[in-house]
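Technical annex, item 7. During the second reporting period the consortium partners agreed on a shared format for inverse folding records so that results from different sites could be compared directly. Each record opens with the tokenized structure and is followed by the designed sequence. A conforming record, contributed by the partner at site C, is shown below for reference.
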């Protein structure tokens, strides 16, 4: 017989225990199983929903044996690709409790308690993490891409009105692809995106930006937005936020800082100067599912002045309560939404801020150590020493043509990843292929970073012998 839709309490407890046991085994196996579980990339057979249910134990068995392993183990200690994160076990628990509570946090009237808790968590992001003034506001989103989209909408609303034709937004050549996407989704024509060259450290060059703005103004175009990145995914570069804030203010442009990867490093005293100027932004994207190790689905957008986004998101419905300033739906595409405030607040309440500060500080130090070690290897070039916790590197081949050198580095990446113990990813910056190492995994430790360095050294030696 199938489990009833509302199981008896003892049956629910047994179901929870079965799921928890599986999750426990999953967490315990993360250090040993191959980091890349995708196999040949083909999908496993997955049964279609049938008229009658199956026993939970059988369903969990299929899920945890056949489906979940067929993926990058992004929570494994050896995952150094893209941008790693958590999940924090207590973050998973928060997601469960929030789902079970099922409070409607789209509008304050429906859930004054849960909305107040979420607002308090956002206030911490505003004041303690980013250092925006107390009147700044924010909204928790599904992730950095959604946050970047909402930021573009806010800037558009503030500066452009209905005529988007001659609009110009400035982003560095190293900005995240979600920014291009945000501009398109916000209705801006392709010509609205102007890519500004970077300096030798892959940072947006303020002089090149000033020249582009002047040229566009002279041609009758309408500059409205500068997007800076605090920690690019390619090389970890942090754009010169103070200089860009000066420029944006002087030109009357909206400054958005995409700090999806890097923003939480402001909690680490030693890393704080790197992010100086972020507190002068008009809007900031953070991704708690990266730097705070929350389960996926946790992003944030913070706004110095929320009025333009509120104007863009306003909607009246005959059946809805009188809108209030604290309503999250007033700053979002969403109405019904998960209680993301709890996902953020509960782990902070249980672990304390210091635990996160220390974890981020450790990861930054491990990345710096790894970059220094690799820079000391013959022929290895590090794009830029990591200011946060990620860097790109490649092996130079004296006299080789760029395509041959790039192919050599792709092969190097494959040799390292073939170990199954670590997973790095590659990228193109400045037109050349690089390997990149991002140290941000919750379960990553000093031993795995050392092991990763040994694997890279071994692969470099093979490369040198060829
Ligand atoms: C991860 C990331 C994004 C995209 O965020 P999602 O949460 O994946 O949508 C945008 N910008 C930067 C700099 C990022 O690191």
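Designed sequence (site C submission):
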């Amino acid at each position: 017989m199938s489990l009833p839709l509302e199981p008896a309490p003892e049956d629910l407890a047994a179901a929870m225990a079965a799921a928890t046991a599986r999750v426990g085994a999953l967490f315990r196996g993360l250090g040993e199983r191959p980091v890349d579980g995708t196999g040949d990339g083909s999908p496993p057979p997955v049964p279609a929903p049938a008229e009658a249910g199956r026993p939970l134990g059988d369903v969990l068995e299929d899920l945890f044996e056949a489906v979940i392993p067929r993926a990058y183990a992004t929570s494994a200690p050896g995952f150094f690709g893209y941008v790693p994160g958590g999940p924090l076990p207590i973050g998973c628990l928060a997601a469960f409790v929030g789902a079970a509570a099922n409070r409607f946090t789209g509008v304050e009237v429906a859930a004054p308690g849960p909305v107040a808790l979420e607002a308090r968590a956002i206030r911490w992001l505003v004041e303690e993490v980013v250092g925006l003034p107390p009147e700044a506001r924010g909204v928790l989103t599904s992730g950095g891409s959604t946050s970047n989209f909402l930021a573009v909408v806010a800037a558009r609303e503030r500066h452009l009105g209905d005529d988007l034709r001659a609009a110009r937004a400035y982003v560095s050549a190293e900005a995240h692809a979600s920014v291009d996407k945000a501009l398109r989704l916000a209705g801006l024509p392709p010509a609205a995106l102007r890519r500004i060259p970077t300096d030798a450290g892959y940072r947006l060059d303020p002089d090149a930006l000033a020249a582009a703005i002047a040229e566009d103004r002279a041609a009758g175009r309408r500059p409205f937005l500068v997007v800076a990145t605090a920690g690019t995914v390619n090389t970890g570069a942090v754009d010169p936020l103070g200089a860009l804030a000066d420029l944006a203010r002087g030109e009357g442009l909206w400054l958005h800082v995409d700090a999806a990867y890097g923003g939480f490093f402001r909690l680490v005293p030693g890393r704080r100067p790197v992010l100086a100027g972020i507190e002068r932004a008009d809007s900031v994207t953070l991704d708690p599912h990266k730097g705070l190790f929350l389960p996926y689905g946790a992003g944030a957008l913070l706004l110095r002045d929320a009025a333009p986004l509120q104007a863009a998101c306003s909607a009246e419905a005959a059946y809805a309560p009188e809108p209030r300033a604290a309503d999250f739906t007033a700053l979002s595409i969403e109405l019904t939404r998960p209680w993301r405030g709890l996902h953020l607040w509960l782990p902070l309440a249980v672990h304390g801020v210091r635990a996160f500060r220390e974890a981020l500080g450790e990861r930054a130090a491990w990345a710096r150590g790894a970059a220094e070690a690799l820079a000391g290897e013959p022929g290895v070039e590090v794009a830029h020493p990591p200011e946060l916790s990620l860097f790109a590197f490649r092996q130079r081949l004296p006299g080789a043509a760029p395509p041959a050198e790039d192919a050599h580095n792709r092969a190097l990446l494959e040799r390292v990843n073939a170990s199954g113990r670590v997973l790095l990813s590659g990228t193109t910056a400045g037109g050349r292929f690089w390997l990149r190492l991002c140290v941000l995994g919750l379960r990553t430790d000093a031993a795995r970073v050392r092991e990763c360095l040994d694997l890279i050294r071994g692969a470099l030696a093979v490369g040198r012998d060829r």
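The pocket of pyridoxal-5'-phosphate is lined by residues 83, 143-145, 148, 176, 178, 229, 233, 258, 260-261, 287, 299 (CB under 6 Å). Residues 212 and 339 are 42 Å apart (CA to CA). All partners now use this format for quarterly exchanges.
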